[in-house]
Amino acid sequence: MSSEYDVNLRYGVDSKGDLSNKVAVVTGGLGGIAMASNQMLLEKGARLALLYPAFEQSKVNDVAGQFAADSVHFIECDVTDPQSVNNAFAEVISHYGQIDILVNCAGYVMLQPVLETDFDEWQKQLAVNLTGPFLCSQAAAKLMIEAGKGGKIINIASQAASVAIDNHVAYTSAKAGLLGMTKVMAKEFAPHKINVNTLSPTVVLTPMGEKAWRGEKGEAMKKLIPLGRFAYTDEIAAAVLFFAGNGSDMITGADLMIDGGFTIW
Ligand SMILES: NC(=O)c1ccc[n+]([C@@H]2O[C@H](COP(=O)([O-])OP(=O)(O)OC[C@H]3O[C@@H](n4cnc5c(N)ncnc54)[C@H](O)[C@@H]3O)[C@@H](O)[C@H]2O)c1
Description:
Layout: E1 23-27, H1 32-43, E2 47-52, H2 60-64, E3 72-76, H3 82-96, E4 101-104, H4 119-147, E5 151-156, H5 169-189, E6 194-201, H6 207-213, H7 216-224, H8 233-244, E7 255-258
Parallel strand pairs: 1-2, 1-4, 2-3, 4-5, 5-6, 6-7
Helix pairs in contact: 1-8, 3-4, 4-5
Bound molecules: nicotinamide-adenine-dinucleotide.
Nicotinamide-adenine-dinucleotide (NAD) binds at residues 27-28, 30-34, 53, 56, 77-80, 105-108, 128-129, 156, 158, 201, 203-204, 206-209.
């Protein structure tokens, strides 16, 4: 008698993680974690649209020199501006004709104690870290649903979304909101086979990580991380790759901690 529950049945996970024929959009695409992710996504055959803010225009030529021109397309985009986001996604479609993966990597932090948090800084951190992923995910999901081939949305949150860290009130509020947004989108988009997940790194060795944790404060922080160090950008990129491939097709609405054990209780 044949069984539906045959232990030999397989989904068809591609253990090589091939992404050829896939187009990935990476916001904040010239940043530290983004650049490590870009490299790995390209190695697996994906083509990339890298969205960057106008103030990083001078970096584009440098970065362009590191990649094959036909695999990477640069698009200026302020993720906090709905018009800029709509224009950018229209440009992705006009250039590549498809979008399969979105990595929401743009981010901004300004550490201030609660009582000294400037309203403008509060607004900016919510705008870049929460409104930006909302606008980009909404734009990407519309196109993915229209194409009917499913998709992957990968949001870079933070350990700060789940634990209280001094001086992080605006950043934490935005990143915790991002976890909530991810769950709702995961549920609403599941019928369209669009997976939506977050990655939550500890401190990562990037300009943003250094801005927040340089020096003695960082050394003290490392002592609180069971694995005793900060994360490297390629360790976050490896998780991006996992969530971009079909080996993660059964995972949605999840938050993957990449924190060396900092949030173990
Ligand atoms: N570095 C860390 O310690 C750390 C830890 C946890 C989570 N994260 C998250 O990882 C992601 C990547 O950060 P990173 O460490 O690579 O920092 P990064 O500063 O190297 O990269 C962030 C990028 O976002 C871009 N950006 C800022 N505002 C933008 C806007 N309005 N529109 C478009 N792009 C904008 C910046 O120009 C920059 O290139 C962020 O979401 C960050 O919050 C970082």
